[in-house]
Amino acid sequence: MSRLIDVFHSIFVYPFRFKSFGKRSKIVSPMTLRGERYMEVGNNVYVAHSAYLTVDTRYPGHIRIEDGCHFGHLNHIVSASSIVIEKDVLTADRVTILDASHQYRDITIPIWKQPLDNLRQVTIGEGSWLGENVCVLSASIGKHCVIGANSVVVDDIPDFSIAVGAPARVVKQYDSQTQSWKKV
Fold this sequence. Notes:
Layout: H1 2-17, E1 20-21, E2 26-27, E3 32-34, E4 39-41, E5 46-47, E6 52-55, E7 63-65, E8 70-71, E9 76-79, E10 82-85, E11 90-91, E12 96-98, E13 101-102, E14 116-117, E15 121-124, E16 129-130, E17 135-137, E18 146-147, E19 152-153, E20 161-164, E21 169-175, E22 180-183
Parallel strand pairs: 1-4, 2-5, 3-6, 4-7, 5-8, 6-9, 7-10, 9-12, 10-15, 11-16, 12-17, 16-18, 17-19, 18-20
Antiparallel strand pairs: 13-14, 20-21, 21-22
């Protein structure tokens, strides 16, 4: 029955709630959606159950997910600025992508009540793969990158790189002349 509900939503509900919602795209319930009118979803996108897709409407945030992306279970994508996930990106389970963080300067105010800080456009490049438990914090990832499980990305990762660790660092890059991956 839940599959029928997901198909119903994908055809008759999401195209009217989202800024745009592509053909043959599916978001599996249960999930949390907030600020859908600021989200664009391309064709053939799959978001596994228990996803959390949110645009903080107090800020000029938006999320764009391009064609062919596939997201694992329990992914969190939260925007207050701009998150663009280019074509054919694959994520494992429990991946978090954020384009802002909370300030913590005033110790007399709870952190969750302080304004957002470090707002930055985040781009996940075409054809990249983010492993299990990866966290991307106001940083961009280039095209055709592999981000190892449990990595925390706080600095930009260039195209054709493999990065691991907390904080993530590039350990290999693709050399187009030798057509092989080289240690950095």
